[in-house]
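in:
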């Protein structure tokens, strides 16, 4: 069997296995949630109303159904790009129009991004204006949604095109170890994004104001001092402009770190609860989760670039995925796009490992928050957040193991030893 046919078969098999697994998991989740819809779990009987429980169930079901539709559509688009010849056709058309060279390759990546983005739009619209709207979470109108889309596109082009151009240039000019240079460039670019995101990018989409409430500021500053943290500032973000979902996060690096509270979070939680949520975030820093995640991501991308460095020189890599490489000119943009399309089909199967890793971090951060603040506050804050986000209390355990980056409420409160008391 030729390597080309072998790749086609492996790709097809992985795609089918992935679709089957996703479908099976979604079916489990839908059945499990629907079966427990009629009654609040006993542990939450005193704290969660039946109406809130059923809203969470209905929201979970609606999202699971949309995910399934999106998954099926995504697989069809992926086949369209690869084995059915979409990418090949686009490449040939651009070669005819522009001739070979860096501009043609950049145009190929750009055209691919625009078409892919356009195909995603109906799902994004449906999610925001049908599902989020129906459950009362959406605060956006079409105008704001369109403005976000325009800003995102401009930003994507302004940041994305130069980095893609640089990587394509390295692929052509840096010899067989181009992938090492490209990897270094990619890491530097990501670190730069982390630094400029809070001060230059985020304010384009949201307003950030210094935390006004002096009592809360004092409390939060005392907590940070107690935990040995310095931050450049405490900010409130107008998250309510877009959504009723609540959150808090850290952003930035080193001394430029800042704490950002969503206004929706401050409106909902008591000062003690805000403290507990912040302590949880500090726990992620204290346990070095952020650094571990970045190092893990860099190691992973290093493997990816090395693999791409090898694959891009193999003719079967192109022909096995439905693309005819140019034997005379450069195929770097083709290689890059094929790689980005096909790798997730295979890495899907390690998602349970990553999710387990992430859930373990959440438990560690919770334990840190309990040690620094008050378990009771953390418990009631978590319960409010789960309820406000309409997260189901009764997810399917296998679905959780595969996908959940955060443990379900029941498990988290049980770990705090508060399940009964909450
Ligand atoms: Zn966390």
């Amino acid at each position: 069997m030729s390597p080309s046919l072998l790749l086609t078969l492996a790709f097809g098999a992985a795609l089918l296995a992935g679709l089957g697994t996703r479908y099976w998991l979604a079916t489990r989740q839908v059945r499990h949630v629907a079966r427990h819809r009629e009654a609040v779990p006993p542990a939450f009987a005193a704290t969660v109303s039946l109406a809130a429980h059923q809203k969470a169930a209905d929201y979970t079901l609606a999202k699971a159904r949309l995910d399934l539709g999106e998954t099926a559509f995504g697989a069809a688009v992926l086949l369209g790009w690869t084995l059915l010849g979409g990418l090949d056709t686009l490449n040939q058309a651009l070669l005819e129009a522009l001739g070979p060279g860096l501009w043609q390759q950049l145009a190929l990546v750009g055209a691919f991004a625009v078409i892919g983005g356009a195909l995603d739009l109906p799902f994004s619209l449906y999610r925001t204006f049908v599902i989020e709207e129906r459950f009362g979470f959406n605060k956006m109108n079409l105008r704001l949604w369109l403005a976000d889309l325009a800003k995102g596109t401009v930003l994507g082009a302004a940041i994305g095109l130069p980095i893609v151009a640089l990587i394509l240039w390295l692929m052509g000019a840096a010899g067989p170890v181009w992938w090492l240079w490209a990897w270094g460039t990619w890491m530097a670019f990501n670190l730069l994004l982390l630094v400029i995101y809070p001060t230059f990018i985020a304010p384009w989409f949201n307003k950030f104001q210094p935390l006004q409430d002096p009592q809360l500021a004092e409390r939060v500053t005392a907590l940070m001092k107690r935990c040995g943290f310095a931050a450049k500032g405490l900010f409130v973000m107008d998250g309510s402009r877009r959504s009723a979902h609540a959150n808090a996060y850290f952003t930035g690096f080193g001394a430029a770190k800042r704490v950002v509270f969503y206004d929706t979070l401050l409106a909902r939680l008591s000062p003690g609860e805000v403290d507990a949520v912040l302590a949880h975030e500090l726990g992620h820093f204290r346990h070095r989760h952020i650094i571990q995640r970045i190092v893990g991501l860099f190691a992973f991308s290093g493997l990816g670039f090395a693999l791409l460095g090898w694959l891009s020189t193999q003719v079967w890599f192109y022909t096995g995925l439905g693309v005819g490489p140019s034997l005379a000119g450069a195929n770097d943009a083709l290689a890059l796009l094929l790689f980005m399309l096909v790798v997730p089909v295979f890495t899907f199967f390690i998602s349970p490992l990553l999710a387990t890793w992430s859930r373990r971090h959440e438990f560690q951060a919770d334990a840190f928050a309990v040690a620094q603040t008050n378990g009771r506050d953390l418990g009631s804050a978590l319960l409010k957040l789960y309820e406000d986000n309409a997260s189901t209390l009764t997810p399917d355990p296998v679905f959780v193991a595969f996908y959940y980056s955060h443990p379900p409420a029941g498990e988290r409160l049980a770990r705090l030893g508060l399940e009964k008391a909450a």
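note: Strands lie at 208-210, 233-237, 248-251, 258-262.
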